[in-house]
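Researcher: I'm preparing a figure for a lab meeting and need a structural model of a single chain. I don't have an experimental structure, so a prediction will have to do for now. The sequence is pasted below. Please return the structure as tokens so I can convert it later.
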Amino acid sequence: MIFWGRLAIKGMGDQKGDLMKKIIVRGAAAVVALLLLFILWPAKIDPVAYTPPEGPGFTGVYATNEALLEAETIPLQFSQGPEDVAVDASGRIYGGLHDGRIVRILMDSTQEVFATIEGGRPLGLHFDAAGNLIVADAWKGLLSFDTEGAMTVLSTEEGGVPFAFADDLDIASDGKIYFSDASFTYNQPDYRLDLLEARGNGRLLVFDPATGETTKLLGNLYFANGIALSQNEDFVLVNETGRYRVTRYWLKGEKAGTSDIFIDNLPGFPDGISANRKGTFWLAIPSPRNPKMDGLHPKPWAKALVSKLPTFLQPSAIHMGLVIALDEEGQVIRTLQDPRGDNVYMITSAEQVGDMLYLGSLEAPQVARVMVGD
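Model: Understood. Here is the structure written out token by token.
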């Protein structure tokens, strides 16, 4: 009995061992099959190789400081993500939110909805000479809102190519609106894909209210983003987020119609840029450079694989607050930082009004402001 019992136990043990082996083999086969399916599944992008220069880091003119820890923050009651901010003649603050609403913060800190863009995502904001709020909306194009919040569509395409990602703008004294289409291929939710692909899908454009015409000034830009005019309006700047640089397009003088690099090899991704029209540009950096992204860029095959991953597994912004002040020669004057993003983070716009700098963010549920002097 003991002998047969031992045989029975041994037989049961062998059966369990065989079953475990089968489970392991089948599990491994399923993993291999899923891996092959992942590899063979078409990529979301058509990437090209790009070898970024070694970043400057946070030394020298970019040395770490904590100036933005002193910034005042104004929590928003409606949604979040005021990517750009604008201040009207009465001192009221405006910001465009994720859900398509444009919030207005009154002088007594009361908040209200100024306008709602159904199905839109308002990004760049700027007031024209008549007090209309001009908006670059990622989905709806270039828009104008009168003082009552009534909307007029100004432009939605150039040369038969619709805007896929109207982003930022500035307005000249003659009323012309200079603006960017970050990518005519990818929409705002897929901005990571455009950066990974590393192709020149962006455009610098100008809209003339007198004629209603939209003209392309520059193409082949690597994620065309922030826009700012110089003090004398002899050139306009456009940020190329995907190349860590700011490009200058000449509007007047011997170089009119040509472009060059204003500043290159920045320590992070340039987003919004504005001019105080006194010789200073404020450049918003939502994130320092991501070593994972830089490491991927020379390998198109790796970028193709990463594009198939869920967004949360792709290289993302690093928590930090950073604004860079530049003179009209492209030299760094100063930086304002929150190294860990404890107070302000993912800054996508910086607009000076008087001695105050107003800060917007693509993700934060707040508007911030900090004293910078006149």
